[in-house]
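Pair request: fold both.
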Amino acid sequence: MSNPADGPANPGSAEESVDAALTTVEHQMSLLWRRARSVSHQLSRQVHPDMEPAAYGLLSVIRKEGPIRLTELASCIGVGKPSVSRQIAFLERIGLVFKEADPLDGRAQSIRLTPMGEEKMHQVQDARRQVFRERLAEWPMADIQTLAESIAKLNATYERDGFPTDGAP
């Protein structure tokens, strides 16, 4: 007779359980990413009707980091400088960011939010927080904290593998 504390009697069943769990994680993450892309698209349109979700992501980083060089911004989000440059040109045209001489290196430029960009991002991020509040209103606080800790743990795993870090607590 086997002891349940020793694990499953059939060693293959443990691997099957891991595979089943990973399949569920993969499915749920894929669903979450699709929904997050949809929300990001909606949020970007709230900032400006012609804005792409990628530009909204740049605004979020600029708001969090403060003045930032183009190369640092590209590194933060893990995309190439040409893509970021194109998005920044759009954001500059619509008055949400501006470039200024970098105080540490006058030859370089830093990108920062304009007052209008700051106000738009404040409004949209408040709306985003409200969406989370509504979606998670019925969840016990312990479950919300567990979710936050689990996502942070997953993100830390990706960061160890070389993905860009966020730097937020």
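--- second member of the pair ---
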Amino acid sequence: MTEHSLWRFSRAFHRAINERQREDLEALIDDEIDWAIYGPIDMFPFFGARHGKAAVLEVIRQIADNVRVHRFDRESIMLGAETAASMLRFSLTMLDANKPVSLRVAHFAQFRAGRLARLRVLVDTFDLVEQALGHPIHLPRIA
């Protein structure tokens, strides 16, 4: 049995973020990739939708310029022949403030011929924004 595309992509993505080694990652991204990270774009401009390899490589560079990944744990995962979905918990450092952040995401990936063709990432944004601001957000109680 061959290795699932998700594992190759995950290793290459981690190297691209922490070590700025994008060469392996470039080969694992489809030229017409459809990419979206859902979250507060005003606070994190590397969130949002991108199309095409060049745009995705640029957003990965932006992520690498802003965060350092210390650890990630897969809470759950589902793999298909050319699909993958998982819940992940990351321990990061926001480089501008040297601030530790714990982040939870769900991601849904589709691969074509071993290359990432579509990615959707949902970020637990409320918790992320509280950590980025450095204080809790107090909301009115409903019901």
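Observation on the second member. Strands lie at 29-38, 48-51, 67-79, 83-94, 99-112, 115-123.
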